[in-house]
Amino acid sequence: MNADKENQGLIGVHRRSSATISNRIGRLLLAWYRKAYRDLPWRRTCDPYRIWVSEIMLQQTRAAAAIPYYQRFLERYPSVEALAAAGEADVLAIWSGLGYYSRARNLLRAARQVAAAGHFPEEIEALKALPGIGDYTAAAIASIAFGRPHAVVDGNVLRVVARVRNEPADIGAAATRRRFGEIAQAWLARRDPGGFNQALMELGATVCRPRNPLCTACPISAACQANQAGTAAQLPVKLRRVEPVEVREARLLVERSGRVLLRRRELSLGRLAGFWDLPSPDQLPAARLGVPLGEFRHSIAHHRYRIAVARAQAKKPPAGYGIFAWMDPGQLERVPLSTTARKALKLAAKARTATCPRA
DNA sequence: AAATCGGGGAA
DNA sequence: TTCCCAGATTT
User: Fold this and answer.
1) What's the CA gap between A48 and A141, in Å, rounded?
2) Which pLDDT band, with edges at 50, 70 and 90, does A4 fall under?
């Protein structure tokens, strides 16, 4: 939008020159993408709902990690109406393990809005009005599902733009993201906005990678100023860097006739609200501690956890310490289960086979 | 503008 | 280990 305004303000010869360069990048990217694209599940559909689900799952998540979740999710909820009719706990159960659970909650809320409206929004502003859909996702859905001419700005795009223009500006700054977005918008191939956006992101994911960029295999290396300057590996510049916080915690594994004791986190909590996890020692004060099973690491954002797991015995869950339940393996798959619980159970299973090979 | 989100994989 | 991923939302 802004790039268009800028172009309109230029005199003819400059405008044509600028447009020629822009179109060349768009054309080269589309031609390359047709041959080099990865055959990912969400690229086999034009269904806006499926494209939407993929874009939400792909937020801050690699394609490889999202694929199994995407398949299961659409098997369970094949349409926006099916999703709108689901309960939140069921949706979170399917999502559990993928992280950033507000994505799932917002997706469900938005699905209910879309189902109630009776139609899927096609304009970028209407898309952005839905919960969980911000600038990137709105542009992605509008362009890929509906052919609207909006350039996406994600981590890949920021990296490619920084290198092509040899720009050392901090990509963490809002002003830089806006400016880089205008550059991507100027590159956009109007005949196929969705294809162009996917091509630009695919280039960032497979060729113009964060480390060890494959410049010799790049379809736009001739237009890349960082490639000419030899600075590609130093770009993009990202100044803000938060120090990770180390946290040590403990969990208790209490088993009784094939079931394990779990505790549900309060619904009022901001994070993992309503998720089930193994109880910690302070949540099970009467438990008799058993053998330690080891510890595992867990990381999210800038938190790094080391969680020790020990066996324990308890006759019954204590009153006043929250909601507890004994669950069998089948139940565990049907509730929102925290990844720490999953890792703790895995650790226990490993300890079991190590000490008792028959089991 | 900066923090938060309770994942995870590649190098 | 570190970095950062098809980011959005809240503070």
Assistant:
1) 7
2) very low
What number does CATH give the domain A2-234?
A: 1.10.340.30
pLDDT for position A269: 83
Residue with tokens 């549900």: A264
- Helix (H) and strand (E) counts for chain A? 15, 6
CA of A85 to C1' of C2 (A): 42
Q: CA of A55 vs C1' of B5, distance in Å?
A: 17
Is residue A278 within 8 Å of A272, Cβ to Cβ? Answer: no
pLDDT of res. A122: 97
Question: A210: Cβ under 7 Å from strand C?
Answer: yes
Task: Tell me what pLDDT residue A12 has.
Answer: 27
Q: How large a percentage of chain A has pLDDT more than 90?
A: 83
Whether any strand B atom is under 7 angstroms from the Cβ of A212: the reply reads yes
Residue tagged active-site, from A6, A55, A122, A123: A55
Contact A25, A220 (CB under 8 A): yes
Active site residue A249: no
Options 3.30.559.10, 3.90.79.10, 3.30.1490.20, 2.40.110.10; CATH of A245-355: 3.90.79.10
Lowest mean pLDDT, pick from A7-21, A133-147, A188-202, A304-318: A7-21
Strand B contacted by A155 CB (< 7 A): no
**Which of A's residues 251-310 have CB atoms within 7 A of nucleic strand B?**
270-272, 275, 298-303, 305, 307
Mean pLDDT of A304-308: 92
Q: State mean pLDDT over A111-117.
A: 97
- A359 DSSP 8-state letter: -
Q: Look up residue A29 and give its two tokens.
A: 């990217």
Q: Which of helix, strand or coil describes residue A213?
A: coil
Q: How far is the CA of A17 from the C1' of B2 (A)?
A: 40
Q: Where are the domains of chain A?
A: 2-234, 245-355
